[in-house]
Design a protein that fits this description.
Layout: H1 42-72, H2 78-105, H3 114-120, H4 133-160, H5 164-186
Helix pairs in contact: 1-2, 1-3, 1-4, 2-5, 4-5
Length: 197
């Protein structure tokens, strides 16, 4: 089905009028993979794409939680946590792009719409308002652990299936980034006074 081309009367004489309100047919459904010459079976690429989309959805939510909590930080360590959370958000955003590109490299369709992400993620939704700082940090740690659990399992399975690229991405980038960030956060939740009295 071809989209009808607008007539000359619909455009300005110099051709600079944008074609507004365009709609197209879906040329690849979510949850499918097209054939790419990457030396992996269709079954392997489909499996890896599905697992990566789950990690991608959780990572996008974690990134957004980092941004939200970056804005909402309070208390004596506001400045340090404000900067740390923004740094972590930036690193998560890099992972989002890397994971999505891997899905596309496998011939899949990366989850993109935020509403679709919300349907796929396992990260629990926080309250819309502001929680106490330890609760916000704890929610971030729980999200990290969910992602790490998913990644460890997905990495093992993709290795068994011979998908070295996905395995490497999950272990070398997603797992290592999330472990390091979890360590930084966890150290802010120890019961140590800020100053000695």
């Amino acid at each position: 089905m071809n989209t009808p081309k607008p007539s000359a009367a619909d455009h300005s004489s110099d051709g600079s009028q944008p074609w507004l309100h365009q709609r197209g047919r879906v040329i690849q459904e979510f949850g499918t993979v097209k054939q790419f010459p990457v030396a992996l079976t269709m079954e392997t690429r489909l499996y890896s794409s599905q697992r990566l989309n789950k990690v991608l959805a959780d990572t996008r939510i974690l990134h957004d939680l980092y941004k939200k909590y970056h804005w909402l930080m309070r208390g004596a360590t506001f400045y340090q946590l404000h900067l740390l959370l923004d740094k972590h958000a930036g690193e998560q955003l890099e992972l989002v792009d890397t994971i999505a590109e891997r899905v596309q490299t496998l011939g899949g369709v990366a989850v993109g719409d935020p509403r679709h992400v919300a349907e796929i993620t396992s990260v629990p939704r926080p309250p819309d308002g502001v929680e106490e700082v330890p609760a916000m940090l704890s929610r971030l740690l729980e999200a990290h652990e969910l992602i790490l659990t998913e990644c460890h399992d997905a990495a093992a399975r993709t290795q068994e299936m011979g998908d070295d690229g996905t395995n490497d991405l999950l272990v070398s980038e997603v797992v290592r980034t999330n472990e390091l960030q979890a360590w930084f956060l966890a150290e802010h939740l120890v019961d140590t006074p800020l100053v000695r009295v």
